[in-house]
């Protein structure tokens, strides 16, 4: 653990000269802004801490877009703007938004118990609410991945849970069992597979034409995760929920979500309210508001060697999207540096 921290610290030092450069002076011309963004990203590339795609937009227009590195461990095929990356935990926004869509349609309430929709679950489902699923306060134990091969295994695992780790709504625990239970609630309420629901009511209205949810079916332009040692990530189990997207599609998601095209402004505010312990992540990651209007949206996701960062300032209509399939753990520092170009401060990220 200490060795990893030292390595990350040393890599961060490579970015410090760039951070100091972009934090000084007044930036006025867009060409100067783009030049400084390019300097930051190329510096990260040259020091070997970035393999992936990056996109920066302002006023709904892409001002910077570039690809660095390779699609897989073989390093024979270069990444391009059509490459699709695993979004990690950012994909959890989709199930949270889906629940809010169902709330807006009168299909459920945040105060509803989970047992109302899935009565075959054990007695603990009588104490757990939809809000607990959204705020990561369900009390569910962590998944034993050794026993998981598909969605049915996940559901059977939930049915086999006898005791919760704590009373729902009393503590925060960032837990994937909570996320998969969201999926099952959506399926029971709508009568649709969660993947089909996401494609119809999340991806399509947001204009995300190139986004796909696992399990994948011989899709093209899918980047493969690999370590900087050249070792490729193992194959994923055939479970629903992971999302592969292009940088442009993730930008479209942010713009549509913030513009009220997917859920209402009130629902967007509700999703940004994390468990009230002062150190929790909301369903949107880290969200800031002023008079209930979203002012900052930062979400970081990881899955194997994949890492993704989404930063948005809806007021200034700025999006910073960084996607990597061979993470060196420095995307947050990279997004900090790009935020500095615009005079913005990036919220703290949860790994």
What can you tell me about this protein's structure?
With 351 residues, the protein is α+β, with helices and mostly antiparallel strands. 35% of the residues lie in helices and 15% in strands. It contains ten helices and nine strands. It has helices spanning 2-23, 30-46, 92-104, 130-134, 151-159, 176-190, 194-206, 247-258, 265-271, 331-341; strands spanning 52-58, 61-68, 85-86, 212-213, 243-245, 286-290, 293-303, 306-313, 318-324.
Spatial gap, N to C terminus: 14 Å
Largest beta sheet: what is the strand line-up? 2-1-9-8-7-6
* Overall pLDDT level: 91
Strand content: 15-25%
Derived structural class: alpha+beta
Summarize this structure as a short list of keywords or feature phrases.
3-stranded antiparallel β-sheet; 15% strand; 351 residues; alpha+beta; 10 helices
Q: Summed up, what is this model?
A:
With 351 residues, this protein is of the alpha+beta class. The protein has ten helices and nine strands. The longest helix has 22 residues, at 2-23.
Question: Which helices and strands occur, and which strands form pairs?
Answer:
Blueprint: H1 2-23, H2 30-46, E1 52-58, E2 61-68, E3 85-86, H3 92-104, H4 130-134, H5 151-159, H6 176-190, H7 194-206, E4 212-213, E5 243-245, H8 247-258, H9 265-271, E6 286-290, E7 293-303, E8 306-313, E9 318-324, H10 331-341
Antiparallel strand pairs: 1-2, 1-9, 3-5, 4-5, 6-7, 7-8, 8-9
Helix pairs in contact: 1-2, 1-10, 2-10, 3-6, 3-7
């Amino acid at each position: 653990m200490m060795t990893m921290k030292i390595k990350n610290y040393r890599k961060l030092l490579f970015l410090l000269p760039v951070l100091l450069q972009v934090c000084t002076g007044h930036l006025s011309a867009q060409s100067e802004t783009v030049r400084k963004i390019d300097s930051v990203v190329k510096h990260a590339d040259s020091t070997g801490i970035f393999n992936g795609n990056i996109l920066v937009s302002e006023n709904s227009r892409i001002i910077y877009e570039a690809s660095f590195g390779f699609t897989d461990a073989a390093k024979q095929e270069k990444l391009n703007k059509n490459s699709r990356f695993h979004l990690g935990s950012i994909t959890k926004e989709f199930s949270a938004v889906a629940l809010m869509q169902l709330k807006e349609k009168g299909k459920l309430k945040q105060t509803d118990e989970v047992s109302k929709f899935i009565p075959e679950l054990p007695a603990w489902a009588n104490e757990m609410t939809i809000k607990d699923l959204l705020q990561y306060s369900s009390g569910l134990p962590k998944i034993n991945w050794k026993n998981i091969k598909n969605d049915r295994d996940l559901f059977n695992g939930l049915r086999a849970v006898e005791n919760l780790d704590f009373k729902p709504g009393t503590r925060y625990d960032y837990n994937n069992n909570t996320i998969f239970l969201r999926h099952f609630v959506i399926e029971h309420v709508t009568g649709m597979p969660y993947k089909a629901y996401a494609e119809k009511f999340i991806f399509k209205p947001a204009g995300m034409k190139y986004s796909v949810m696992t399990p994948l079916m011989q899709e093209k332009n899918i980047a493969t995760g690999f370590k900087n040692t050249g070792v490729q990530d193992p194959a994923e189990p055939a479970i629903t929920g992971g999302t592969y997207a292009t940088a442009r599609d993730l930008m479209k998601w942010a713009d549509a979500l913030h513009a009220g095209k997917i859920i209402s402004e009130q629902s967007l505010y509700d999703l940004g309210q994390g468990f009230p312990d002062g150190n929790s992540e909301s369903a949107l990651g880290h969200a800031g508001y002023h008079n209930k209007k979203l002012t900052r949206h930062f979400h970081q996701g990881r899955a194997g060697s994949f890492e993704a960062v989404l930063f948005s300032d809806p007021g200034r209509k700025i999006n910073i999207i960084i996607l990597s399939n061979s993470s060196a753990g420095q995307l947050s520092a990279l997004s900090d540096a790009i935020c500095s170009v615009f005079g913005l401060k990036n919220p703290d990220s949860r790994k």
